[in-house]
Amino acid sequence: MNIDRTTRRRLHAGATAAAPVLALGLLRLLTDAGPRAAPAATGEPEQADPTPAVATTSPVNAAQRRAMEWLRSRPAVTVGSPMDHPPAAAPVERDAAPAAAQPAVVEEVRPAVTAIVGRGATARALVNGKVLGVGDEVSPGWRVTGIDAREQVVEITGPEGAVRRIGVGRGEP
After folding, report:
1. pTM value?
2. What are residue 34's phi and psi, to 5 degrees?
3. Contacts of 17 (CB under 8 A, 6+ apart)
4. How many CB atoms lie within 10 A of CB 15?
5. How far is it, in rounded angstroms, from Cα 56 to Cα 120?
6. What pLDDT was estimated at residue 20?
7. Which pLDDT band, with edges at 50, 70 and 90, does 110 fall under?
8. If residue 68 lies in a helix (H) or strand (E), which one and from where to where?
9. What does the pLDDT look like over 115-125, one tens digit per residue?
10. Contact between residue 154 and residue 165 where contact means Cβ atoms under 8 Å apart
11. How confident is residue 140, by pLDDT bands cut at 50, 70 and 90?
12. Distance CA 146, CA 75 (A)
């Protein structure tokens, strides 16, 4: 068979690179070593220590008994996820005639954006410890008007159209 010099070099380099891998595979096959021989693969637990699996317990003393009774008397505490949405508030009925018009006071708002998850219409932001979506109120008069997950920025609009863009963990850009 006629093989040019370049092809012969490439074949030699490939065979040289593949030889150790093939040798290890053959060694594993002949000695039955490898993942199949590992104790984790068979489902049999490896026990190096002959001690029993269940430890014996000493009798409970009076202080421990009081502590257990106190714990049982405490109400169970369930911690919700910060990403859970609170139930929707009941609609508030307003009087048809508004009270005397009062001048609008623009409150200085300094929201802290901790995280943004999701994209598009499903995007949510963790602002001042509350999970908010577009349209939700950050503080009186200030609403979330945009959440950009790619740029990690929340846009809020306040009274008289004031707009702020707040980045995650860095305040206003």
Report:
1. 0.38
2. 120, -165
3. none
4. 10
5. 57
6. 86
7. confident
8. helix 62-73
9. 888 888 888 99
10. yes
11. confident
12. 40
Sign of CA dihedral 92, 158, 82, 134: positive
Q: Are strands 142-148 and 130-132 parallel, antiparallel or unpaired?
A: unpaired
Question: Phi/psi of residue 157, each to 5°?
Answer: -120, 135
Give residue for tokens 């093939």.
Answer: 22
For residue 112, count other CB atoms closer than 10 A to its CB.
13
Owner of token pair 């000695």: 31
Cα-based angle 158, 163, 169 (whole degrees, multiple of 5): 100
Partners of 159 in beta bridges: none
Assigned token pair, 87:
């139930």
The Cα 75–Cα 63 span in angstroms is: 21
Statement: residue 36 has pLDDT above 70: no
> What is the token pair recorded at 161?
């159209």
Query: What is the rounded (10 degree) CA torsion for 90, 96, 97, 101?
Result: 40
> Tens digit of pLDDT for each residue in 74-85?
887 666 666 666
Q: How confident is the model at residue 21 (pLDDT cuts 50, 70, 90)?
A: confident
15 three-class SS = helix
Question: What average pLDDT does the segment 130-142 reach?
Answer: 89
With beta carbons less than 8 A apart as the criterion, state whether 154 and 130 touch.
Answer: no
